[in-house]
Design brief:
Blueprint (H helix, E strand, L loop, with lengths): L2 H29 L6 H5 L7 E8 L5 E5 L4 E2 L7 H11 L6 E6 L2 E3 L2 E3 L2 E4 L16 H11 L4 E2 L3 E4 L34 E8 L7 E6 L6 E4 L2 E3 L5 E5 L6 E9 L3 E8 L3 H15 L3 E2 L4 E3 L8 E7 L3 H10 L3 H9 L11 H13 L22 E2 H12 L4 H6 L23 E8 L2 E9 L5 E9 L5 H19 L3
Parallel strand pairs: 6-8, 7-9, 8-17, 9-18, 12-15, 13-15
Antiparallel strand pairs: 1-2, 1-23, 3-20, 4-7, 4-19, 5-6, 10-11, 10-16, 14-15, 21-22, 22-23
Helix pairs in contact: 3-6, 4-5, 6-7
């Protein structure tokens, strides 16, 4: 056998001997160590899904597991981590939104010769069922009385000029716009910007009858196509534009249920607020001479400050935002960032500020696409690596406690109540969830019994199943990873 032939045979045998090693290396590169990420490949719900994930030791930065961590994916409500963290870092947990009661003209002998203005700066809690003082209008009336005003020769005006008139994010889809979870976002919010539309459900095939709304909204009209069917859940949708008082009702509701509530957005919550304020003034003997109205752009009228109303603390607001995944709260906070550049606040400026803010702090947002603050926009995109960098930063921030308190806990609170309950990770995962059709994401922290903490992001989109099925696979993955690597 010649030297050349022996040389070829040697390398051939070497290649055969190394095949298992190469195969193992390729397997770990693509799907992680056996017993962890390969769970997703083995399950038909996630086998063909888009996956990006990263799990790190928070103290050392050692990678526990990863799979395409730099790839971006739609974050859904995990997006709320960005505006809530940004708000804490720029405003502080004790920050309170201000709403200003101002007047034009002058007060003479108890008569205001001018108009009363309510100027908003983005407080999402006015009249909210979630956070705040629901009796705030009584305090506003008292402030007017204390200023010596007994009558108003003018009207009450809602000043919405702090935000631009683009109340509905242009990145949202028609299926969402107008529903309770996708209301318009205004400088003056009221009653969670939501109304409850009470229907009467009849026989199968009939059109559900609109009876009334709570709250009552003057001038609202409905084009109603909601059918009563044999379904057992709420399958109705509300569609409509900001400032437009026509709402389109489609879909279906269960038949023969009597009264049945469907939630939609308020066409102009700021206007409804000053209507209620004006009514409350009238009830207390303070009359006006014109109907309440609103302005969406600053009118340049000289005003005098009468009273400042302060919201609950930002800490309370972001706890509601993240634990209950409140889109309206998230968007209201997000929209205020635009003021860092110019007024009125715009969606574009808010997104630019947020992206640049984190990039300058070492969080790689170059591939991140920010369209809104709550994650409803399908164009939103972020990677697991970016989320882990953000979470690592916040864990070491002076605002850690407030941020940590805003995250739901596995098996116990908020949107994580159904994740890992009754398992070894019950109560150990503090994370934000994100859910849209065929998509489920989680990002947060895992507390280990040995005192260590993992920081993680798992994002799975376009799965072959419902979000709750994807959640089950993610739960299995996290539990398996904990059992194989968290006890070492």
């Amino acid at each position: 056998m010649t030297y050349k032939v022996r040389h070829i045979l040697f390398f051939a045998l070497l290649m055969v001997a190394c095949l298992p090693l190469w195969a193992k290396t390729e397997q770990e590169t693509l799907v992680g160590a056996k017993g962890s990420v390969d769970i997703f490949e083995r399950n038909p719900v996630t086998a063909t899904a888009n996956i990006t994930l990263l799990v790190q030791d928070l103290e050392t930065g050692d990678i526990i597991d990863s799979y395409r961590p730099k790839n971006v994916a739609p974050p859904a409500s995990v997006m709320k981590l960005l505006p809530t963290a940004t708000a804490l870092e720029t405003l502080g947990e004790d920050y309170r939104f201000s709403t200003y009661i101002e007047y034009s003209g002058y007060i003479d002998n108890g008569i205001l010769h001018g108009d009363l203005y309510v100027r908003g700066t983005g407080d999402p809690t006015l009249g909210s069922q979630k956070v705040g003082d629901r009796a705030f209008l009584n305090k506003w009336v008292k402030a007017v009385k204390d200023a010596g005003i007994r009558a108003i020769r003018g009207c009450v005006i809602a000043d919405l000029s702090y935000f631009d008139a683009d109340a509905v994010n242009p990145g949202w889809i028609w299926e969402d716009i107008g529903n309770y979870y996708a209301p318009g976002i205004y400088a003056l919010s009221y009653m969670d910007n939501t109304m409850n539309i009470i229907l009467r459900s009849g026989a199968v095939g009939s059109v559900a009858e609109v009876q009334y709304t709570v709250p009552e909204v003057p001038g609202v009209q409905f084009e109603n196509h909601i059918r009563c069917t044999s379904i057992t859940h709420d399958g109705a949708f509300v569609h409509g534009e900001a400032y437009n008082y026509t709402r389109y009702l489609t879909g279906s509701v269960p038949s023969n249920q009597g009264s049945f509530g469907v939630q939609g957005d308020l066409p102009n919550p700021g206007l409804l607020l000053v209507q209620h304020f004006s009514d409350k003034l009238e009830e207390n003997g303070i009359t006006t001479t014109a109907w309440p109205t609103y302005i969406s752009e600053a009118d340049g009228v000289k005003r005098t400050l009468l009273y400042t109303w302060l919201s609950p603390t930002l800490r309370d607001i972001i706890i509601e935002t993240n634990i209950h995944s409140n889109n309206m709260y998230a968007e209201s906070v997000f929209r205020t960032f635009g003021a860092r550049y110019t007024l009125p606040c715009t969606i574009h400026n808010s997104a630019d500020f947020e992206k640049d803010f984190w990039y300058r702090r070492g969080v790689d947002t170059r591939s991140t696409r920010i369209v809104d603050g709550c994650g409803l926009a399908p164009q939103d995109a972020i990677s697991a690596e970016t989320l882990v960098q953000l979470l690592t930063y916040m864990y070491r921030s002076p605002n850690k406690d407030a941020f940590y308190a805003s995250l739901p806990v596995s098996g116990q609170t908020g949107t994580l109540r159904t994740l890992l309950g009754g398992t070894e990770l019950d109560g150990r995962v503090h994370a934000k969830s994100g859910t849209i059709a065929a998509t489920k994401n989680f990002a947060g922290y895992i507390e280990l019994p040995n005192g260590k903490t993992w920081v993680f992001a798992v994002m799975i989109s376009f799965g072959n199943g419902k979000a709750k099925q994807i959640q089950k696979v993610i739960g299995d993955y996290l539990l398996d990873l904990y059992q194989t690597k968290g006890k070492e």
